[in-house]
């Protein structure tokens, strides 16, 4: 199955900051490019952190107003999270504002893998790294949604080519493929139950498929084959591998 890679949908013109980029310059970059966050890189283009609008807001919330009276003595916050918030409130550079150990993705990972990472880690954007861990792009949720913009006819042709012909090695007439608003319906009668199940499973993995409606039948229920029968079929292959 050919799946769209992150490198095909990422933005390569990445707005970035260095560790010592001043606070106001970070704010200008975010506002000027209308973005919610940017990666912080070292001299070798390795991503060391991410600065978001929330980080800048945390700084502003903690900053005292000109007319605000001096605060009395308070016990220092002892939790790590509280110390990090206090440090960001005093930060003057991107290095002080950033969240370290950022969540990243590689350019050769699939769009589906990147989407799962975003959902699992609760982030809206991911810096994209090459094989040397250097920054080569950035991908957002909007970028990942591009795979769902193909027409129903284009998606139908893709399912026939990648699933029916290349995946199952069947003629395109063996399975009727209907697509409406990204929902794929598979109809027909295949030889084995395993083939029908494979058709549905592979179709779900095609980029741009919203859902799959399974209307496939089968002539032989091979799920009931005994293990020893399957082993007998594989015996010849095992013998060849031992040569």
Automatic annotation (TrEMBL):
<feature type="domain" description="CBS">
    <location>
        <begin position="98"/>
        <end position="157"/>
    </location>
</feature>
<dbReference type="InterPro" id="IPR051257">
    <property type="entry name" value="Diverse_CBS-Domain"/>
</dbReference>
<dbReference type="InterPro" id="IPR007055">
    <property type="entry name" value="BON_dom"/>
</dbReference>
<protein>
    <submittedName>
        <fullName>CBS domain-containing protein</fullName>
    </submittedName>
</protein>
<dbReference type="InterPro" id="IPR017080">
    <property type="entry name" value="UCP036990_CBS_BON"/>
</dbReference>
<feature type="domain" description="CBS">
    <location>
        <begin position="10"/>
        <end position="67"/>
    </location>
</feature>
<dbReference type="InterPro" id="IPR046342">
    <property type="entry name" value="CBS_dom_sf"/>
</dbReference>
<dbReference type="InterPro" id="IPR000644">
    <property type="entry name" value="CBS_dom"/>
</dbReference>
<dbReference type="Pfam" id="PF00571">
    <property type="entry name" value="CBS"/>
</dbReference>
<keyword id="KW-0129">CBS domain</keyword>
<feature type="domain" description="BON">
    <location>
        <begin position="152"/>
        <end position="220"/>
    </location>
</feature>
<dbReference type="Pfam" id="PF04972">
    <property type="entry name" value="BON"/>
</dbReference>
């Amino acid at each position: 199955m050919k799946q769209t890679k992150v490198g095909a949908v990422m933005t390569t013109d990445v707005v970035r900051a260095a560790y010592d980029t001043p606070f106001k310059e970070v704010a200008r970059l975010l506002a000027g490019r209308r973005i919610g966050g940017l990666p912080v890189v070292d001299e070798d283009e390795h991503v060391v952190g991410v600065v978001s609008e929330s980080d800048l807001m945390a700084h502003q919330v903690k900053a005292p107003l000109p007319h605000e009276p001096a605060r009395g003595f308070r016990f220092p916050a002892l939790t790590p999270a509280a110390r990090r918030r206090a440090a960001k409130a005093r930060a003057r550079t991107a290095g002080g504002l950033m969240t370290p150990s950022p969540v990243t993705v590689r350019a050769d990972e699939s769009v589906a893998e990147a989407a799962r990472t975003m959902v699992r880690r609760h982030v809206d954007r991911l810096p994209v790294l090459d094989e040397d861990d250097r920054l080569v792009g950035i991908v957002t949720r909007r970028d990942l949604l591009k795979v769902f913009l193909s027409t129903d006819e284009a998606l139908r042709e893709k399912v026939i080519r990648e699933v029916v012909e290349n995946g199952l090695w069947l003629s395109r007439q063996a399975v009727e493929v209907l697509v409406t608003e990204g929902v794929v319906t598979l109809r027909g009668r295949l030889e084995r139950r395993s083939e029908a199940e494979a058709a549905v499973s592979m179709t779900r993995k095609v980029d741009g498929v919203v859902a799959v409606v399974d209307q496939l039948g089968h002539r032989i229920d091979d799920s009931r084959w005994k293990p020893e029968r399957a082993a007998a079929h594989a015996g010849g292959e095992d013998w060849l591998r031992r040569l």
